[in-house]
Write a structure and sequence with these properties.
With about 180 residues, the protein is an alpha+beta fold. It has 7 helices and 4 strands, in the order H-H-H-H-H-H-H-E-E-E-E. This is YchJ-like middle NTF2-like domain-containing protein.
Length: about 180
C-alpha cells in the first residue's frame, strides 16, 4: 500500500463526500472501485484510457497519493527526469486543494494521446479564491506496460478554445508556480 500525506483521509472524505470518486466520471462509483484501483494496482493503471489516467492523476492529488503522480509519468517526460518529482508532487498536495475535474476532449492515436481538461482548485487550506486550471495534456504509451503515461501539458490561455481539436497546443503560458497535473 502506498503512503499518503497526513491529511489525505480528511481530504478524501471532504472532497469525495457521498458523491463518489473525486475524478467526477461517475458519481455513483466510490474511489475504491474507480481511481483507487489504478492507484493501488499497476495492471489496473495500465488498462486505463488516456482520459482516465488524467482523472486518476487528479484524484491522486486529492487523496494525497504523490507516488501515483510519479508512476503515471512517462520516462521521457522532462518532469520524470527530475529527481525532485516526488517531492514536487508532495508539495503540491500540501499547497493546493483540487475540487473538481472536467475532461473536455480527449483523443488517442498512434501511441500518443491528448486530453483537454479543467480542474478547479484553491491554494492553501482551501479558503482562497477558486481558480480554474485549463490544460491540454499529452500522454504516450509506456513501452513496458503499454499503458498511457503523462508526458507534459500546455496551459490554455483565456482566449484558447477548450474544444480545439488541432494537434498544435493552444496559446497560453504555463504558471511556473505550480506543477502540471
Amino acid at each position: 500500500m502506498r503512503e499518503r500525506d497526513d491529511a489525505s483521509e480528511e481530504r478524501t472524505g471532504k472532497q469525495r463526500g457521498a458523491s463518489g470518486c473525486a475524478c467526477g466520471k461517475d458519481a455513483s462509483v466510490a474511489y475504491e472501485a474507480c481511481c483507487g484501483r489504478a492507484h493501488g494496482d499497476a495492471n489496473a493503471a495500465a488498462a486505463l484510457a488516456a482520459e482516465d489516467v488524467m482523472r486518476a492523476r487528479f484524484t491522486a492529488y486529492v487523496v494525497g497519493d504523490a507516488q501515483y503522480i510519479v508512476s503515471s509519468t512517462h520516462e521521457e517526460s522532462k518532469d520524470r527526469a527530475r529527481e525532485s518529482l516526488l517531492r514536487d508532487a508532495e508539495n503540491t498536495i500540501k499547497r493546493i486543494r483540487f475540487h473538481s475535474f472536467r475532461a473536455k476532449r480527449s483523443s488517442e492515436k498512434d501511441g500518443e494521446a491528448y486530453v483537454t481538461y479543467e480542474a478547479d482548485y484553491t491554494q492553501g487550506k482551501g479558503r482562497g479564491k477558486m481558480k480554474t486550471l485549463a490544460e491540454r495534456a499529452r500522454l504516450r504509451r509506456d513501452a513496458e506496460t503499454g499503458g498511457w503515461k503523462f508526458v507534459d501539458a500546455v496551459a490554455l490561455g483565456a482566449n484558447a478554445s477548450l474544444d480545439d481539436a488541432g494537434d498544435a497546443a493552444a496559446p497560453g503560458a504555463p504558471d511556473p508556480s505550480r506543477r502540471p497535473m
